[in-house]
Amino acid sequence: MAPHTGRQFKSVFAEANIQLRNVFGMEMVELPLKEKVTVSQKRAAQRTQASTSTSSNAYVLTNVLPPRYRNATIIPPSRVPTSSTESAYTGLYTFILALVYLSPGSSISESKLESSLKKMNADNHVLGGEKTEKVLRRMEREGYIVKVREREAGGDESVDYVVGPRGKVEVGEKGVAGLVRKVFGKKDNEKEELEARLVRSLGDVVLEKRDR
Questions:
Q1: pLDDT recorded at residue 41
Q2: pLDDT by residue (tens digit) across 68-118?
Q3: pLDDT the model gives residue 173
Q4: Are 107 and 162 in contact (CB under 8 A)?
Q5: What pLDDT does residue 48 have?
Q6: What whole-number distance in Å separates Cα of residue 88 and Cα of residue 15?
Q7: CA gap 171, 175 in Å, rounded
Q8: Would you tell me which of 58, 87, 96, 172 could form a disulfide with 31, CB atoms 3.0–4.6 Å apart?
Q9: Of 160, 174, 167, which Cα lies nearest the Cα of 144?
Q10: C-alpha angle 24-25-27 in degrees, rounded to nearest 5
Q11: Integer Cα distance of 92 and 117 in angstroms
Q12: Alpha helix (H) ranges present in the chain?
């Protein structure tokens, strides 16, 4: 849109989303702002509260198709660089986001993340040979996770990971719950307990609704 048509953005945006939903089964969603996690970030936010924008002005397309249509046959992974590499990357960031979401306060320390990746034999190299550190930086750059450094009272530095804006929108609590169900929800006699644990960890938003 041209600069002088800014006031029409809401109506144009709404109409564009109607077309996206009806034709492509997609929706454009504004990314949330990065959370203020550290004490210094929160103090800085308080000082600039009056002039701080409440909008990120960044948007991403999300899938709004019914669950029964969300499979690799209908929605294959990107072919750039290759389908197998991109599907592996999607699986990896979904796994890491699950670790973050299911950790206390939805925050995981760098050491605990490294320990979890080591158990999966992914602490050094992933995605067919790329260094894990490089892939984590890509996830940070693309907004799936946020690396938070904070200087503690004794002078030591703590490093933690929290969920990034794209991680919240593209995966979120529901995506994490879906991953957990795929891995652990195979036995009927265990499903009720699994659902209860998911709700305790992730909230009522993950309550499963049957797709009709």
A1: 60
A2: 888 878 888 787 778 888 888 999 999 999 999 999 999 999 999 999 999
A3: 96
A4: yes
A5: 61
A6: 35
A7: 5
A8: 58
A9: 167
A10: 100
A11: 10
A12: 9-19, 39-47, 83-101, 110-119, 132-141, 165-166, 172-184, 188-202
Give the H/E segment covering residue 81: none
* Model confidence at 119: pLDDT above 90: yes
Q: What is the pLDDT of residue 211?
A: 45
State the Cα–Cα distance between residues 143 and 156, nearest whole angstrom. Answer: 26
The answer to whether 137 and 89 are in contact (CB under 8 A) is no
User: What is the longest distance spanned by two Cα atoms in the chain?
Assistant: 60
For every residue of 3-18, DSSP letters joined together read GGGGGGHHHHHHHHHH
- Taking residue 150's Cβ as centre, other Cβ atoms within 10 Å add up to 14
The C-alpha angle with vertex 51 and arms to 49 and 57, in degrees rounded to 5, equals: 105
The whole-number pLDDT of residue 51 equals 54
Report pLDDT digits (tens) over 128-179.
Answer: 788 999 999 999 999 999 999 988 777 788 999 999 999 999 999 999 999 9
Token pair in block for residue 20: 């996206």
CB atoms within 10 A of CB 145: 24
Return d(Cα 5, Cα 211) in angstroms, integer: 40
